[in-house]
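Standup notes, structure subgroup. Blocker cleared on the NDP input:
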Amino acid sequence: MTARIIDGEAIAAEIRVSLKREVEKLLLSGKSRPGLAAVLVGDDPASHTYVRLKRKASAEVGIESVAQELAADSSQEQIENLVHELNADPTIHGILVQLPLPQGIDEEAVLGAISIEKDVDGFHPLNIGKLAMKGREPLFVPATPAGCITLLKSAGATLQGANAVVVGRSNIVGMPAALLLVRENATVTICHSRTKDLQSVCRNADILIAAIGRAEMIRGDWIKPGAFVIDVGTNRVDDASKERGYRLVGDVAFDEAIEVAQAITPVPGGVGPMTIAGLLRNTLQSAQRLQGYMGEAML
Ligand code: NDP
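Run returned:
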Protein backbone atom coordinates (compact mmCIF):
# COMPACT_ATOMS: atom_id res chain seq x y z
CA MET A 1 0.00 0.00 0.00
CA THR A 2 1.25 3.48 -0.77
CA ALA A 3 -0.16 6.08 1.57
CA ARG A 4 -2.08 9.15 0.55
CA ILE A 5 -0.18 12.32 1.30
CA ILE A 6 -2.15 14.72 3.49
CA ASP A 7 -1.56 18.11 1.92
CA GLY A 8 -1.35 20.60 4.78
CA GLU A 9 -0.46 23.46 2.42
CA ALA A 10 -3.69 23.02 0.47
CA ILE A 11 -5.89 22.64 3.56
CA ALA A 12 -4.28 25.66 5.23
CA ALA A 13 -4.78 27.68 2.04
CA GLU A 14 -8.49 26.79 2.12
CA ILE A 15 -8.69 27.93 5.74
CA ARG A 16 -6.98 31.22 4.85
CA VAL A 17 -9.53 31.88 2.09
CA SER A 18 -12.42 31.39 4.52
CA LEU A 19 -10.66 33.53 7.14
CA LYS A 20 -10.27 36.38 4.66
CA ARG A 21 -13.95 36.16 3.80
CA GLU A 22 -14.94 36.19 7.48
CA VAL A 23 -12.69 39.19 8.19
CA GLU A 24 -14.39 41.08 5.36
CA LYS A 25 -17.82 40.22 6.75
CA LEU A 26 -16.78 41.40 10.20
CA LEU A 27 -15.62 44.74 8.78
CA LEU A 28 -18.79 45.13 6.68
CA SER A 29 -20.86 44.70 9.83
CA GLY A 30 -19.12 47.80 11.23
CA LYS A 31 -16.81 46.01 13.67
CA SER A 32 -13.11 46.67 13.83
CA ARG A 33 -10.35 44.74 12.13
CA PRO A 34 -8.89 41.82 14.15
CA GLY A 35 -5.61 42.80 15.78
CA LEU A 36 -2.80 40.43 16.74
CA ALA A 37 0.16 41.47 18.90
CA ALA A 38 3.33 39.41 18.69
CA VAL A 39 5.65 39.90 21.65
CA LEU A 40 9.23 39.12 20.78
CA VAL A 41 11.95 39.31 23.42
CA GLY A 42 15.61 39.20 22.36
CA ASP A 43 17.40 38.45 19.09
CA ASP A 44 16.81 34.75 18.46
CA PRO A 45 16.89 34.53 14.63
CA ALA A 46 14.42 31.61 14.47
CA SER A 47 11.93 33.52 16.64
CA HIS A 48 12.27 36.58 14.39
CA THR A 49 11.59 34.38 11.35
CA TYR A 50 8.50 32.80 12.96
CA VAL A 51 7.09 36.20 13.93
CA ARG A 52 7.76 37.56 10.42
CA LEU A 53 5.90 34.60 8.87
CA LYS A 54 2.97 35.02 11.27
CA ARG A 55 2.73 38.74 10.47
CA LYS A 56 2.89 38.12 6.74
CA ALA A 57 0.13 35.52 6.93
CA SER A 58 -1.96 37.87 9.11
CA ALA A 59 -1.71 40.62 6.51
CA GLU A 60 -2.83 38.21 3.78
CA VAL A 61 -6.14 37.51 5.51
CA GLY A 62 -6.71 41.10 6.66
CA ILE A 63 -5.61 40.76 10.28
CA GLU A 64 -3.66 43.74 11.58
CA SER A 65 -0.53 42.57 13.33
CA VAL A 66 1.89 44.50 15.46
CA ALA A 67 5.30 43.29 16.56
CA GLN A 68 6.21 44.34 20.08
CA GLU A 69 9.94 43.86 20.37
CA LEU A 70 11.78 43.99 23.66
CA ALA A 71 15.52 43.80 24.27
CA ALA A 72 17.06 40.46 25.35
CA ASP A 73 17.93 41.93 28.76
CA SER A 74 14.35 43.07 29.51
CA SER A 75 13.15 42.34 33.02
CA GLN A 76 10.29 40.06 33.98
CA GLU A 77 8.37 43.17 35.03
CA GLN A 78 8.90 44.93 31.68
CA ILE A 79 7.63 41.92 29.75
CA GLU A 80 4.61 41.43 32.00
CA ASN A 81 3.84 45.17 31.88
CA LEU A 82 3.79 45.01 28.09
CA VAL A 83 1.40 42.04 28.25
CA HIS A 84 -0.87 43.99 30.64
CA GLU A 85 -0.90 46.98 28.27
CA LEU A 86 -1.89 44.70 25.39
CA ASN A 87 -4.59 43.08 27.54
CA ALA A 88 -6.11 46.54 28.01
CA ASP A 89 -5.77 47.64 24.36
CA PRO A 90 -9.17 47.32 22.61
CA THR A 91 -7.57 47.16 19.14
CA ILE A 92 -5.74 43.96 20.10
CA HIS A 93 -7.77 40.75 20.10
CA GLY A 94 -4.94 38.23 20.26
CA ILE A 95 -1.59 38.23 22.06
CA LEU A 96 1.16 35.77 21.32
CA VAL A 97 4.42 35.64 23.19
CA GLN A 98 7.03 34.05 20.97
CA LEU A 99 8.80 31.24 22.83
CA PRO A 100 11.41 30.53 24.00
CA LEU A 101 11.88 33.55 26.27
CA PRO A 102 15.44 34.49 27.29
CA GLN A 103 16.98 32.50 30.14
CA GLY A 104 16.00 33.74 33.57
CA ILE A 105 12.51 34.83 32.49
CA ASP A 106 9.65 32.99 34.14
CA GLU A 107 7.75 31.77 31.08
CA GLU A 108 4.82 30.45 33.10
CA ALA A 109 4.27 33.85 34.74
CA VAL A 110 4.41 35.65 31.37
CA LEU A 111 1.94 33.25 29.72
CA GLY A 112 -0.27 33.44 32.81
CA ALA A 113 -0.36 37.25 32.50
CA ILE A 114 -2.06 37.09 29.10
CA SER A 115 -5.80 37.72 29.36
CA ILE A 116 -7.51 34.36 28.82
CA GLU A 117 -9.77 36.12 26.31
CA LYS A 118 -6.77 37.09 24.13
CA ASP A 119 -4.74 33.90 24.59
CA VAL A 120 -4.77 32.96 20.89
CA ASP A 121 -1.87 30.51 21.32
CA GLY A 122 -4.04 28.66 23.85
CA PHE A 123 -1.11 28.18 26.26
CA HIS A 124 -2.73 29.89 29.26
CA PRO A 125 -3.08 27.32 32.07
CA LEU A 126 -6.82 28.01 32.26
CA ASN A 127 -7.28 27.22 28.58
CA ILE A 128 -5.20 24.04 28.85
CA GLY A 129 -7.01 23.12 32.07
CA LYS A 130 -10.41 23.47 30.42
CA LEU A 131 -9.16 21.41 27.48
CA ALA A 132 -8.38 18.62 29.95
CA MET A 133 -11.77 18.78 31.69
CA LYS A 134 -14.89 16.99 30.61
CA GLY A 135 -17.78 19.31 29.78
CA ARG A 136 -15.61 22.47 29.75
CA GLU A 137 -14.78 24.45 26.65
CA PRO A 138 -11.45 26.26 26.34
CA LEU A 139 -11.68 29.68 24.65
CA PHE A 140 -8.70 28.73 22.46
CA VAL A 141 -7.04 25.47 21.46
CA PRO A 142 -3.30 25.53 20.60
CA ALA A 143 -2.90 25.80 16.84
CA THR A 144 -0.49 22.94 16.10
CA PRO A 145 -2.46 20.19 17.88
CA ALA A 146 -5.73 21.58 16.49
CA GLY A 147 -4.12 21.40 13.05
CA CYS A 148 -3.27 17.72 13.61
CA ILE A 149 -6.94 16.93 14.28
CA THR A 150 -8.11 18.91 11.25
CA LEU A 151 -5.64 17.04 9.04
CA LEU A 152 -6.79 13.67 10.38
CA LYS A 153 -10.42 14.54 9.74
CA SER A 154 -9.70 15.87 6.26
CA ALA A 155 -7.92 12.61 5.47
CA GLY A 156 -11.04 10.69 6.50
CA ALA A 157 -9.70 9.11 9.69
CA THR A 158 -12.27 7.77 12.15
CA LEU A 159 -11.18 9.06 15.54
CA GLN A 160 -13.96 7.65 17.71
CA GLY A 161 -12.80 4.41 19.27
CA ALA A 162 -9.47 4.47 17.42
CA ASN A 163 -6.25 3.48 19.14
CA ALA A 164 -4.30 6.73 19.02
CA VAL A 165 -0.68 7.05 20.06
CA VAL A 166 0.98 10.41 20.62
CA VAL A 167 4.75 10.36 20.91
CA GLY A 168 5.75 13.48 22.85
CA ARG A 169 4.12 15.13 25.88
CA SER A 170 5.15 18.78 25.53
CA ASN A 171 2.81 21.54 26.69
CA ILE A 172 2.55 22.97 23.22
CA VAL A 173 2.13 19.89 21.04
CA GLY A 174 2.06 16.37 22.50
CA MET A 175 -0.13 16.87 25.55
CA PRO A 176 -2.80 19.11 23.96
CA ALA A 177 -2.87 16.79 20.92
CA ALA A 178 -3.58 13.86 23.25
CA LEU A 179 -6.29 15.84 25.07
CA LEU A 180 -7.95 16.72 21.76
CA LEU A 181 -7.93 13.07 20.71
CA VAL A 182 -9.60 12.11 23.99
CA ARG A 183 -12.28 14.71 23.23
CA GLU A 184 -12.77 12.98 19.89
CA ASN A 185 -13.37 9.71 21.80
CA ALA A 186 -10.13 8.04 20.72
CA THR A 187 -8.36 5.71 23.15
CA VAL A 188 -5.10 7.52 23.70
CA THR A 189 -1.62 6.40 24.73
CA ILE A 190 0.91 9.15 25.43
CA CYS A 191 4.57 8.19 24.95
CA HIS A 192 7.76 9.99 25.94
CA SER A 193 11.46 9.43 26.46
CA ARG A 194 10.89 6.87 29.25
CA THR A 195 8.34 4.75 27.37
CA LYS A 196 9.33 1.10 27.18
CA ASP A 197 9.26 -0.64 23.82
CA LEU A 198 8.00 2.39 21.95
CA GLN A 199 8.12 0.47 18.73
CA SER A 200 5.45 -2.03 19.87
CA VAL A 201 3.25 0.74 21.25
CA CYS A 202 3.43 2.61 17.93
CA ARG A 203 2.69 -0.54 15.97
CA ASN A 204 -0.68 -0.75 17.70
CA ALA A 205 -1.72 2.75 16.62
CA ASP A 206 -4.54 3.38 14.17
CA ILE A 207 -3.61 7.03 14.54
CA LEU A 208 -0.02 8.03 15.22
CA ILE A 209 1.06 11.57 16.03
CA ALA A 210 4.82 12.10 16.29
CA ALA A 211 5.97 15.25 18.12
CA ILE A 212 9.44 14.35 19.29
CA GLY A 213 12.07 16.45 17.57
CA ARG A 214 14.27 13.50 16.46
CA ALA A 215 14.91 13.14 12.76
CA GLU A 216 13.23 10.07 11.24
CA MET A 217 13.16 8.18 14.54
CA ILE A 218 9.91 6.36 13.74
CA ARG A 219 10.66 3.74 11.11
CA GLY A 220 8.34 2.14 8.61
CA ASP A 221 8.15 -1.14 10.54
CA TRP A 222 6.90 0.73 13.64
CA ILE A 223 3.73 1.63 11.79
CA LYS A 224 0.56 -0.42 11.70
CA PRO A 225 -0.50 -1.12 8.12
CA GLY A 226 -3.30 1.28 7.21
CA ALA A 227 -2.57 3.77 10.02
CA PHE A 228 -2.97 7.54 9.75
CA VAL A 229 0.33 9.24 10.53
CA ILE A 230 0.74 12.90 11.49
CA ASP A 231 4.34 14.02 11.67
CA VAL A 232 4.78 17.24 13.66
CA GLY A 233 8.57 16.98 13.88
CA THR A 234 10.60 19.58 12.07
CA ASN A 235 14.28 18.67 12.15
CA ARG A 236 17.25 20.03 10.23
CA VAL A 237 19.64 17.49 8.76
CA ASP A 238 22.83 18.41 6.93
CA ASP A 239 22.48 18.31 3.18
CA ALA A 240 25.32 19.65 1.07
CA SER A 241 23.15 19.51 -2.04
CA LYS A 242 20.97 22.33 -0.67
CA GLU A 243 22.02 25.94 -0.94
CA ARG A 244 21.34 26.52 2.76
CA GLY A 245 23.28 23.35 3.69
CA TYR A 246 20.39 21.47 5.30
CA ARG A 247 16.95 20.08 4.64
CA LEU A 248 13.95 19.61 6.89
CA VAL A 249 12.75 16.15 7.84
CA GLY A 250 10.10 14.91 10.22
CA ASP A 251 10.21 12.50 13.14
CA VAL A 252 8.95 9.74 10.85
CA ALA A 253 11.05 8.04 8.14
CA PHE A 254 8.70 9.24 5.41
CA ASP A 255 9.94 7.01 2.53
CA GLU A 256 9.42 3.90 4.65
CA ALA A 257 6.18 4.98 6.31
CA ILE A 258 4.51 5.87 3.03
CA GLU A 259 4.69 2.19 2.06
CA VAL A 260 2.75 1.10 5.16
CA ALA A 261 0.41 3.87 6.27
CA GLN A 262 -2.97 4.75 4.80
CA ALA A 263 -2.31 8.48 4.92
CA ILE A 264 0.64 10.57 6.08
CA THR A 265 1.68 14.21 6.37
CA PRO A 266 4.89 15.30 4.65
CA VAL A 267 7.55 17.52 6.22
CA PRO A 268 7.56 20.27 5.19
CA GLY A 269 4.05 20.92 3.93
CA GLY A 270 2.01 18.95 6.48
CA VAL A 271 1.42 20.24 9.98
CA GLY A 272 3.59 23.37 9.64
CA PRO A 273 1.20 25.43 7.48
CA MET A 274 -1.72 24.47 9.74
CA THR A 275 -0.04 26.07 12.74
CA ILE A 276 -0.13 29.60 11.38
CA ALA A 277 -3.63 29.12 9.91
CA GLY A 278 -4.83 27.99 13.36
CA LEU A 279 -3.34 31.03 15.04
CA LEU A 280 -5.09 33.33 12.57
CA ARG A 281 -8.38 31.48 13.04
CA ASN A 282 -8.07 31.89 16.81
CA THR A 283 -7.39 35.62 16.35
CA LEU A 284 -10.42 36.11 14.12
CA GLN A 285 -12.64 34.18 16.54
CA SER A 286 -11.34 36.29 19.39
CA ALA A 287 -12.11 39.52 17.50
CA GLN A 288 -15.60 38.22 16.76
CA ARG A 289 -16.22 37.21 20.38
CA LEU A 290 -14.81 40.38 21.93
CA GLN A 291 -16.98 42.48 19.61
CA GLY A 292 -20.12 40.41 20.10
CA TYR A 293 -20.25 39.20 16.50
CA MET A 294 -21.43 35.71 15.63
CA GLY A 295 -19.14 34.28 12.94
CA GLU A 296 -19.61 31.15 10.90
CA ALA A 297 -18.11 27.83 11.96
CA MET A 298 -14.78 27.17 10.28
CA LEU A 299 -12.54 24.16 9.70
P1 NDP B 1 9.78 19.04 23.12
O1 NDP B 1 11.26 18.88 23.06
O2 NDP B 1 9.19 20.04 24.05
O3 NDP B 1 9.11 17.62 23.44
C1 NDP B 1 9.58 16.46 22.85
C2 NDP B 1 8.86 15.27 23.41
O4 NDP B 1 9.40 14.11 22.80
C3 NDP B 1 9.06 15.10 24.92
O5 NDP B 1 7.84 14.75 25.53
C4 NDP B 1 10.08 13.97 25.03
O6 NDP B 1 9.91 13.14 26.16
C5 NDP B 1 9.76 13.17 23.79
N1 NDP B 1 10.94 12.41 23.37
C6 NDP B 1 12.19 12.86 23.18
N2 NDP B 1 13.01 11.86 22.81
C7 NDP B 1 12.26 10.73 22.79
C8 NDP B 1 12.53 9.38 22.52
N3 NDP B 1 13.75 8.97 22.17
N4 NDP B 1 11.51 8.51 22.59
C9 NDP B 1 10.26 8.90 22.93
N5 NDP B 1 9.95 10.19 23.20
C10 NDP B 1 10.93 11.09 23.13
O7 NDP B 1 9.34 19.33 21.63
P2 NDP B 1 8.00 20.01 21.03
O8 NDP B 1 6.81 19.26 21.46
O9 NDP B 1 8.06 21.47 21.23
O10 NDP B 1 8.26 19.76 19.47
C11 NDP B 1 8.35 18.47 18.94
C12 NDP B 1 8.71 18.57 17.47
O11 NDP B 1 7.66 19.26 16.78
C13 NDP B 1 9.97 19.36 17.15
O12 NDP B 1 10.62 18.80 16.04
C14 NDP B 1 9.46 20.74 16.82
O13 NDP B 1 10.34 21.44 15.94
C15 NDP B 1 8.19 20.38 16.09
N6 NDP B 1 7.17 21.44 16.11
C16 NDP B 1 6.56 21.71 14.91
C17 NDP B 1 5.56 22.64 14.86
C18 NDP B 1 4.89 22.87 13.56
O14 NDP B 1 4.23 23.86 13.40
N7 NDP B 1 5.00 21.96 12.62
C19 NDP B 1 5.15 23.42 16.02
C20 NDP B 1 5.81 23.01 17.25
C21 NDP B 1 6.79 22.05 17.27
P3 NDP B 1 10.14 13.67 27.68
O15 NDP B 1 8.90 14.44 28.00
O16 NDP B 1 10.28 12.42 28.47
O17 NDP B 1 11.36 14.52 27.65
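Discussed briefly. The mean pLDDT is 96.
Next: hand off to the docking folks.
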